[in-house]
Amino acid sequence: MSEYTDQIAEYFNRVPMWPLVLLAVGIVFAGIYELIIRKRWADAADEFRSAILSTLSGLYPEPTNWPKNIDTYLCARLPVMHEIIEGFRPNVRQQDIPAYNADWDSYYHFCRTEVTDDKCIAAETNAGKEPDPKKTFHTLVSNLLRYAE
Fold first, then answer.
1. Are 144 and 104 in contact (CB under 8 A)?
2. 107 to 4, 8, 33, 141: CA distances (angstroms)
3. What is the pLDDT of residue 138?
4. In degrees rounded to 5, what are phi and psi of residue 61?
5. 130 strand-pairing partners
6. Which of 14, 73, 81, 123 satisfies CB 3.0 to 4.6 Å to 130 for a cystine?
């Protein structure tokens, strides 16, 4: 056993140290870079989540202030939501971008064509028979927010 440790010690006595120091410096810089990237992603995810929650306050996570003319209300917020979605897109993992786009398209389509006051009233009066737009809205927004987790 002593023979092997002597060989290793002799190796480090003969090898120049600059490659090992260069390797150590590279590893330290890679670690620092990784920490910076993770911090930036966490900040972007927090900003994304808070921007959506502030834009949809009263509607998500609980519909406490569901307005009349919900279709007009949501359509008026679509440009702001689009800006939020586009701003966060660089932070979405490459393999998740198609699903992210599909979730945004589903939300956009819902706000433009599927939610109306009549459908909300029908869902409240015929509970269980009609799909509830409030639950659908909650699901669509939750799908968008899962990319910030």
1. yes
2. 66, 63, 35, 7
3. 92
4. -80, -25
5. 127
6. 123
Can you name the residues that pair with 127 across neighbouring β-strands?
A: 130
Secondary structure of the chain as H, E, C letters = CHHHHHHHHHHHHHCCCHHHHHHHHHHHHHHHHHHHHHHHHHHHHHHHHHHHHHHCCCCCCCCCCCCCCHHHHHHHHHHHHHHHHHHHHHHCCHHHHHHHHHHHHHHHHHHHHHCCHHHHHHHHHCECCECCHHHHHHHHHHHHHHHHC
pLDDT tens for residues 57-103? 988 888 888 888 888 898 899 999 999 999 999 999 999 999 999 99
Encoded tokens for 128: 């269980």
Rounded to whole angstroms, the Cα distance separating 134 from 146 reads: 18
Give the Cα-Cα-Cα angle 112, 83, 137 (nearest 5 degrees): 40
